[in-house]
Specification:
Largest sheet: none
Number of strands: 0
Radius of gyration: 22 Å
Number of domains: 1
Shape: globular
Structural class: mainly alpha
Distance between the termini: 30 Å
Strand content: under 5%
């Protein structure tokens, strides 16, 4: 534990400075919990892998691996297999776990009225940022979901860890029980209705795909309108389907923090045990992915038995990743990677929006390169790696001169309602 300060691994009962009720101000760098920043950094980078196909081509081609321009074949199946097995659902789940923690760190106990006001303003401004991001930049925005989920989560932030974990797990299980039941209904609907769903959700006509590519790759106004139309069609689904799951995961995340798991306060054996469970879940998902490939990604198969394994098991795989990184922080292993991830996580909001700006500049028409619908999955992964490198380089460079990321400063300035110094020299 040579590179870990005591405050970074202290149990939550020790009242770390980050949660002190008297500190109605953004947390200082020396008070941050390192494990949380490292995990946020990993999550924000991992999310890009899953989002990338949705930036690059019509969303149906992103979800259906048989559709051009993102179709896979025997030679490039890895470009679908690796993101699906190791990234899809895992990193958004990891980030949701951490967001549940942030609701508590910002808002404190429910009895702390001043911090509660800050939390409500913070979530309110996140809602506004989500509207702007989704409508004007990229339709796949998650900030709106987090803001809505956070408003529900804030009422539970003072619950004991036991009740947070129990309630979150019950909600999580019930959500996927309903998913399994809904999938069963699909097998009973008429062939005509099933075909309509297949065309709309999975395999639109080639002319429809070409039209979407032409629109997103057209002028700035055309790509903006296309993005807005897609966003408005997605918002109801995100609110009614994604918000409940997100709340459940946030509860689990805060519960895990309160028992000292996410802060790194548990014994090494606990993390090894959780990692073992996550490894089993990862093996199951990998096996299911092979079955889906062999089945040719047939629509009914993917909407039933082929698509029901990965989402519920994602939380175990997320905790596998968390356990490995926390063990690295505790032991000083892979210190170069750990130290590289922490600044990215410290600037998670800025880096998330920056990913959208960069990727839409590359793919959308009227904003930059206009490569929408022109890249394959292999090239897309190379682009993702390039964005990773950029954010891993620029995040520590920025934080060497400033206390927080630029969008973090704007967000906190609005949340706390008072001037905040961003430059380290100004703070001195």
């Amino acid at each position: 534990m040579s590179d870990v300060a005591p405050a970074e691994i202290a149990p939550v009962e020790a009242a770390p400075a980050e949660t002190a009720p008297s500190a109605i101000a953004p947390v200082e760098a020396e008070q941050r919990i390192k494990t949380l920043d490292v995990l946020r950094g990993l999550a924000i980078l991992g999310i890009l892998v899953v989002n990338a196909p949705f930036f690059a081509a019509p969303w149906q081609t992103a979800v259906n691996p048989t559709l051009e321009p993102l179709a896979i074949h025997d030679a490039n199946v890895w470009s679908w297999f690796v993101p699906h097995v190791f990234f899809e659902q895992k990193f958004i789940t990891l980030f949701s776990l951490l967001f549940g923690v942030s609701v508590f760190l910002v808002g404190g106990e429910r009895s702390d009225l001043e911090r509660g006001k800050v939390l409500r303003r913070r979530l309110g401004w996140m809602f506004v940022f989500g509207l702007i991001h989704g409508a004007a930049i990229w339709f796949g925005d998650i900030l709106l979901v987090y803001a809505i989920s956070g408003f529900f989560m804030m009422f539970a932030r003072s619950w004991r860890a036991r009740w947070l974990l129990l309630t979150g797990l019950i909600m999580y299980v019930l959500i996927y029980v309903l998913s399994f039941l809904s999938a069963g209904v699909l097998t009973m609907i008429s062939a005509n209705s099933l075909e309509e769903m297949r065309v709309q959700m999975w395999a639109p006509a080639a002319q429809s795909v070409d039209a979407a590519i032409a629109t997103y790759g057209g002028s700035f106004s055309e790509s903006l309108k296309a993005n807005y139309d897609t966003w408005t069609s997605f918002v109801p689904f995100e609110i009614f389907n994604t918000v409940p799951r997100t709340i459940a995961v946030m509860m689990i995340g805060l519960g895990l923090f309160k028992v000292g798991f996410l802060s790194g306060a548990r014994s090494g054996s606990v993390y090894w045990m959780v990692a073992a469970l996550g490894a089993i879940a990862l093996a199951i998902v990998a096996y299911q992915a092979q079955i889906n490939f062999a089945a040719g990604f047939e629509f009914l198969h993917m909407q039933t038995r082929g698509g029901l394994i990965n989402p519920p098991l994602s939380i175990l795989i997320s905790l596998l990743y968390a356990s490995v990184l926390i063990l690295c922080v505790k032991t000083g292993a892979l210190s170069a990677i750990i130290n590289a991830l922490a600044p990215v996580g410290q600037m998670a909001f800025t880096n998330y929006i920056a990913q959208s700006v960069i990727m839409t500049a590359i793919f959308y028409g009227g904003r930059g390169l206009g490569l929408y619908g022109e890249v394959e999955r292999e090239t897309l992964i190379a682009i993702v790696v390039g964005v990773w490198a950029l954010q891993l380089i620029w995040s520590p460079l920025w934080l060497a001169r400033f206390k927080m990321g630029p969008l973090e400063w704007v967000w906190r300035r609005l949340s706390y309602g008072k001037p905040l110094a961003i430059g380290k020299l100004a703070a001195a």
